Amino acid sequence: MSTADVTKLLGVSRRTLMRWVQQLDMQLEKNELGHYQFSNEDVERLKQIQSQSQPPQTQSQPVSQAVQTVQGSRKGTLKNVEVVENPLEESLIKRMEELERALRSKADDVVSYQMLQHRREIEELTKKIALLEQKIEDLENAQSKREPKDHSLVFDQSTTQKKPRRKNLISSIFSF
């Protein structure tokens, strides 16, 4: 199709059409006179762009890029473009988004389970620590009961009693 045919079909000016072609970086064939020739695929793509560039409608799915006219610029200027060339792609994108949501949900469940498991382990360790503290306290009390009340040192106590010295045999016979 020629440029004039496409502009009539889409209801846009030739300049708008050429601007779209330039902004989308479309690779079009040219005839022997150097005029653009649009294939049916190109026309379908331009129709999709034109339908997306209409005033925004509520869409059920999030779109990463949308066709919008730039405020303060000429009508029909494209800002960002997303061309849906295949309905299969749309269903694949939806399915991928569902899988990502399910994956995030599963990851959240795993993290929650791990947190509960850690909490149980911490509670068990806290009980063991309390039990050990009680045992230490009992041991300290038992130790304090065994200690002598007299805190004198072993070396401070008197030495063992000396044995009376035997008088030598001669002095015992001749006692003076």
Automatic annotation (TrEMBL):
GO cellular component terms listed in the entry, alphabetical order: cytoplasm
Classification via Pfam families: MerR_1
Biological processes, Gene Ontology terms: asymmetric cell division; chromosome condensation; chromosome segregation; regulation of DNA-templated transcription; sporulation resulting in formation of a cellular spore
Keyword Transcription: no
An annotated Gene Ontology molecular function: double-stranded DNA binding
Subcellular location: Cytoplasm
Chain intervals with Basic and acidic residues compositional bias: 141-153
Keywords: Cell cycle, Cell division, Chromosome partition, Coiled coil, Cytoplasm, DNA-binding, Sporulation
Top-rank lineage group of the source organism: Bacteria
DNA-binding region boundaries: 3-23
UniProt xrefs under SUPFAM superfamilies: Putative DNA-binding domain (SSF46955)
Keyword Ubl conjugation applies: no
Region span, Disordered: 141-164
Function: Required for the formation of axial filaments and for anchoring the origin regions at the cell poles in sporulating cells, thus ensuring proper chromosome segregation in the prespore. Binds in a dispersed manner throughout the chromosome but preferentially to sites clustered in the origin portion of the chromosome, causing condensation of the chromosome and its remodeling into an elongated, anchored structure.
Record-stated family: Belongs to the RacA family.
HAMAP family: RacA (MF_01170)
Protein name: Chromosome-anchoring protein RacA
Native species: Metabacillus sediminilitoris
